[in-house]
Task: inverse folding
């Protein structure tokens, strides 16, 4: 007679991120999972902790000692927008990774308990294996879109893959008196932060602490590509690399960049650089649906793909709203755009560390 089948229990608990063995197990799980991203790696939430001071956590689900689920988390605190438990903090992706066929319910029960324990009335899961809407949960797929496309075989094929009007802008950028630098040295980091700080101030958003950029460069596979005009940095992007995909993540240009077509040159040069590194996919990142960046990416020939986010709000709490585009925050964004750059650069990191 066959022995009866005994269903093993799924155990969910906090992971010890200081344990090298646990980190290796999680890294292996993320790299093996089809939906794994840089934002699922322990290195990401630890870089966020280094750069912003927000606490990293991680929930791990196991059956018989084998990892079947992983949820990286950041406890984000803002004196203006309140507290948030995010997976992953300061990321466009993240969310729960579970072995196909496994039920993620234990992870989601665990995250609600953690949120209450850390006084976070809101939880946001960015991608991953999302739960079905339940009590307190909602899923949105109309706020942001992602843009991913294959890299072409060579420069000419890459140009031909871009619609004609945008292709003309790229060619103007290629003909301009611009130079290209790529690296992770202090020269690259300081140029990137200066350009990015001006760019986001002009958009009405506080700049992230430079320490966040430094920590990501130090902990993950990342670099900076900067476009200079007569030696002055006018456009710069910090990109992540993961399993053959390049992800331009924090990038922008100065006011001077537009007339020089420096942003167009920057992204084309990044495609060239990534191809030389062996990448075959270009992930243009997320943009708010129907925003200016959304249409800019479509002009390059990238098709939008809606991103699904799951949000849980504790009973009796109001949903967190930190979007500069919302009606409640648009006046604040307009005021920020008028700040002198030195003032915005001094105050910005203090506020941005709480955006999440």
Result:
């Amino acid at each position: 007679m066959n022995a009866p089948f005994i269903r093993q229990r799924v155990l969910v608990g906090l992971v010890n991120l200081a344990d090298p063995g646990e980190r290796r197990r999680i890294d292996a799980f993320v790299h093996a999972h089809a939906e794994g991203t840089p934002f699922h790696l322990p290195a990401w939430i630890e870089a966020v902790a280094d750069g912003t001071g927000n606490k990293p956590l991680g929930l791990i689900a196991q059956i018989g000692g084998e990892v079947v689920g992983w949820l990286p988390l950041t406890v984000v605190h803002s004196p203006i927008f309140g507290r948030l438990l995010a997976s992953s903090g300061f990321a466009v992706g993240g969310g729960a990774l579970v072995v196909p066929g496994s039920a993620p319910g234990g992870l989601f029960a665990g995250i609600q308990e953690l949120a209450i324990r850390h006084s976070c009335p809101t939880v946001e899961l960015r991608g991953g294996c999302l739960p079905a809407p339940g009590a307190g949960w909602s899923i949105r797929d109309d706020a942001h879109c992602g843009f991913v496309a294959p890299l072409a075989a060579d420069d000419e094929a890459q140009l031909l893959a871009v619609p004609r009007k945008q292709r003309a802008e790229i060619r103007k950028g290629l003909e301009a008196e611009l130079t290209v630098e790529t690296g992770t040295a202090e020269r690259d980091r300081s140029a990137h932060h200066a350009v990015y700080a001006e760019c986001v101030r002009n958009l009405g958003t506080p700049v992230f602490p430079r320490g966040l950029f430094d920590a990501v460069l130090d902990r993950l596979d990342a670099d900076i590509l900067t476009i200079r005009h007569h030696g002055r940095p006018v456009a710069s992007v910090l990109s992540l690399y993961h399993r053959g995909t390049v992800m331009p993540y924090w990038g922008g240009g100065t006011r001077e960049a537009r007339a020089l077509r420096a942003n167009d040159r920057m992204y084309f040069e990044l495609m060239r650089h990534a191809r030389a590194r062996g990448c075959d996919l270009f992930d243009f990142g997320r943009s708010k649906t129907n925003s200016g960046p959304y249409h800019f990416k479509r002009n390059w020939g990238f098709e939008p793909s809606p991103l699904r986010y799951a949000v849980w709000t504790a009973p009796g709490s109001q949903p967190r709203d930190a979007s500069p585009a919302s009606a409640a925050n648009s006046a604040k964004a307009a005021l920020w755009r008028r700040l002198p750059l030195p003032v915005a650069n001094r105050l910005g990191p203090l506020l941005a560390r709480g955006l999440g």
In short: The radius of gyration is 21 Å. The chain has a mean pLDDT of 91. The longest strand covers residues 66-78. Residues 11-141+308-320 form a domain with the Aminopeptidase fold (CATH 3.40.630.30).
